[in-house]
Each structure stands twice: as structure tokens, then as C-alpha cells.
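Summary for the steering committee. The consortium agreed at its last meeting that each partner would contribute one worked example illustrating the joint modelling workflow. Our contribution is presented below. We chose a case with several input lines so that the handling of multiple components could be demonstrated. No manual editing was applied between input and output; the record is shown as generated.
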Amino acid sequence: MEIVKRPHVENFIAWAKDKPEVVVLTADLTNSSEVGKWRDTYPDRFFGMSMAEQNMMGFASGLAREGYVPYIHTFAVFIYRRPYDQLAMSIAYPNLNVKFVAFLPGITTPGGVTHQAIEDVSIMRATPNMTIVETGDATEVESVLDVAHGIDGPVYIRMLRGEVPRLFPKDEPMRLDEVRMLSDGDDVVVITAGITTEEAMRASVPLAGAGVGVRHLHVSTHKPLNDPLILESIERSRHGVITLENHTIIGGLGSAIAEKMAEAGSAKRLIRLGLRDTYAHGASKAYLMKEYGLDAAALVTGVEDLLGVDTGITERDLAAARVEATHSLAKAEGL
Amino acid sequence: MTSTEPGHEWQSDTQAVADRIRVRVLDHVLSHNGGYMSQALSSAEIFAMLYTRIMNLGASTAPMIPQPFSGVPGSDNPDFFNGGAYNGPKAPEYDRFIFSPAHYALVLYTTLIEVGRLAENGLEQFDMDGSTVEMIGAEHSPGVETTTGSLAQALSQAGGIALARKRRGDTGKVWVMMSDGEFQEGQIWEAISEAAKFDLDNLRVIVDVNGQQCDGCMDAENYVEPLTGRIRAFGASAVEVDGHDLDALDAAMSMETGKPHFVMALTDPVRGLPIFEERAPLLHYLRFTSEGERERYRDVYEEMVN
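What follows is the complete predicted structure of the assembly.
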């Protein structure tokens, strides 16, 4: 599997070249949000707004009303927690073209509870006019800008930084409200987003080896979430569905799937994996994913629970499993 | 600016608008048994100055009688109507008006009537279900371009507009009308600091320093007095004037300082309606406690009209 180093840095510079309307605002997190080189390349389009997020939301709204498209770059927690009233009233209510590039989703940071955005999808889902997308690999980091820019209104982007795996081919960009089918099988549907997708891909080989058929769907758009492949897949599964999210299980991906299933009258079982109504703490990503049950091993346990079987899959099997860039099967089935 | 001209014509016209704002708001409060009265009494000259003397606005592009509420903004609502249209078209040379204390909506609507941008009977829709003439306005309400009822957000919004306009080279200014209570919110200080950092000399703020807020009187000695100095310390220019003195307002509002500029208009929340002093210190909202009290106010109203 290819690991891409800081895919956003150069991609955002090249992408913004012919878009003079694009401006960047950040609140004292320039290099931490991977826009230091962008600032040096387009100094007249970059606004350092100091450590003052409430005001930054207002300035972004004013710039957007005048035709600019502000891309706010900062940590997710400083977008939806501290200045939420400003985000809702100055930007979301008027449906302004402000894009939030929200770094450090979930437990991807050792920064601890103050830096871990664990309920952002929940809050943004409840915010009218807001579109929510999440990047799961380098291809999505590179293609999310086109998705966000094409939307008339505010967009919240769960963004990855640093070393990012390439799970999807470069010629299969993120598309709004389209899920990717990464494996197919009849027993169980596994739905993931962001960093949990790589975990599910890691689990799928040993699961297949143990005779468990998994249809793995990767979600990159949390809102809107209307791809018919989701409910179709759940209904045709033998045992039901497992969601695995880098987020609290309240209000995020698992809740969204539960709402869809309930409204459709689905009788299938649902297991929601993620943070179980708890805050986390500062530690490495791998440590926290294991501690809070967001990793491949947690998914295997979930599958065993749902199917009522013991697959015999060990941590060692999962560690040995190779993850390779995978074409989506969704198109192949013409769905 | 032109206060030494013989005849002092603009002053009498502007004062007449201010006086009519007070009378019309009192009339409304009498007939509706309640309303934001002190806001009109303290800010009548401020609104009259903005709309008759200071702001360079084009003619209204909105209907004289407000249309009914046409839904909230959204990509699925192409019919959304923005109340800024009552302040005329957006153009490089025109000023923009950003209205911060949305609880002053009745004063703004009344001002629009007095300067011919809104029909007199437009106010009949005030606080009526399905109307845009809301008690606390939002950006569909007449004269309201941005949504600011959650106080202290307008200055940052105006800062963004001013920054964009400065980049474009627009000559028009961005005028913000604020109340002094809003300076209790931290966002205001973030906004002043950043507006000064970006040299937004096209950003102008008139503040109704009436010492009033929802829970009653603000502590003037400890709060209002240092306010002007604090604003200067954050990098903007600020001057204090008698908020009922048209010539003083004119000079302060026309000042070029090369910085974001604040005019601190020191005002009297019972100006022109001394009977209201009986209610001090709770002047935020006037609702009559008895029919007898309402009659006493009605008598004062008759005197003001005649």
C-alpha cells in the first residue's frame, strides 16, 4: 500500500491556482493545517485570523457574502465546539459558501480530549444547510476539494494530514453521496468512513478466509446520505450490518444508518462500533483505536457477535493482512 | 461638516426624522401594549443621522409593503429575500448598513418609514405570523442584511465585508450600528483587534451607549467610561459624543482616522419621554401595567403629536 506524505499541501496549491475566489483563513494553525506553503504561494489570499475563532467565522461569512470562497483551515474541535453559534448564525443559516477544512477528526491526534473531535459529525448533521464529507485516503484528500467547491453552501470536511494511505485508485475520485463497495459477500454489511475503512479492509481478507462474506461499503459523505446501495445491501445481507466510526456512536454514521433502517422498516440487526459515549485521552492513534474498539480486531469481534460464530481470527492474522488500493465494485454492478 | 451653513437645513430635516421615530414607536407601543421603547428614545438621532446624512445609499430595490416570509436561506430556496434590498443596491461606491442589535428592529423599520423606504402600513405586519417584519429581525426583515440577533456577531461579519471591499477597491464604507451591551461579548474584542490589524479604515461603527441592557442598567462608571479607551487600546479609533447632538454626531461620524472608527454616542434612554424614567432601571422593554398607566402615556403621546 502506498503511503502519501502530506497530500493536501501541493494538491491544494495546484487546485487553487486558477480559482482567485478561493481564500484561506486560519486561527494560528497554519503549518498544523498544512497551508504554510499555500500562504507563501498566495500571500494576498491568505488571512491569519489570530487565535480568535468566533471572529474568524464572522469574517469568513462577510468574505463569502462578497463572492469569495473562504476555506477555513484549523482543527475540527475549533470549528464546531468553540464558535458554534457563530458557525450556525453567521454562516450556516445564510447558506454561505464557506468550506471548513477540519483536521484531527476523532482520535487521530495524541493531543487528548481538547483536540479530539469525537462528536463533530453529530453536531454538523443537526445543522441545517451543512454538507459533511470525510476523507479516508490520499485520493479523497486530493478530490474532496472539487466536491466541496461544487456545493452551493457550507461544507464541513473531516480532513487527514501527514502520512495518508492511498486506498482508492487516483482515477476514482470522491463523489458526493456515493459510497464505494470495497468487497462483496452475503453474510454481513460493514460500513466505514475515514480511518476506519483501512481497518475494515485489513479485516476483510481473514474474514473471507474464515468463510464470512462481507460487503464492505465506504462512506465519504455523511450528509446527504442517500445512496440506495446502503439500504439495498443491508436488506440482502444474511445477518445485518456493522458500522465502524472514528466518532461517538451517538449521532454519527451508526446513528445515520439506524435512522435509515428504521424509516425503511428494516428488520436487520445493527451493531454500532465506535466511541461508546465517552471522551478519549492523549495517546497514539493505534493505541486509542485498540482501546476504544475502532480497529480491525474490534470489527472481527463485532462480526462474530452478529453471526454467532467464532472465526478463529487472531491479532496476528490481522497484522499479517495486506491492504492494497481497491477499485470500487459499486460501478461494476451498475448500481 | 456643513453645520456652519446658513439656515442649518439638514439639521432640522434630520431632527424631524428623529422626532417622528420617537412618536411612531410610542404610537406602536401604545397600540400593541408593549415594545422596545427605550431603544427608540436613545437611538432616534443615530438612525436619523445614518439614513439622512451619513450613509451613501442607493434607492431601495424592495417593495414598499414587505412581502410575506418566503422561507429561510438554502440552496433549495431560490426565492429567499434579503432585507438589505431596502438599503438599496450593492455597488462599489455605495455604503452598506449592517445592523447589529436586532432587538432594535422596531426602530429600524420606523426609520425606513420616515425616510420613505417602507410604507407606513408596513409596520402593521410587525410581529404578525408569516411576516418578515419580525420583532427581532433576521436577514429577511426590512433593512436587515445579515442575521445578528445572537448579539455581537455583526462586527465580525462587517469586518469580512469590509476586508473584501477593501481588496476590491470599493470606495463605499461599511457602517455598523451597535449597542453598548454587546461589548460584554468577547467576540467584539476579537473583531476590533483583527479589523485594526487589517487596517479596515472603511469600517465604521456607531454605538448607542445608552447604558441599558436586558437585566437593567449597566454600571456606567465602571463599564461605559473605560469602553472608549479600551477600543482605542485594541487598535481602532474611537470618539465620544452626545448622541442627541446632530452637529457633534456629524463631525464624529465624518472623521477620517485611517483606522476602523467607532463613534460612541452617549445617549439618554428616556430622551423625549421623561415619564418613562419612572420605570428605571428596567427600561429594556415597555409593557403597561395598567390601563391607567397606558392612558398617561397616551396623554404624553397626544402632546408630542400636537
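The radius of gyration of chain B is 19 Å. The longest strand of chain B covers residues 203-209.
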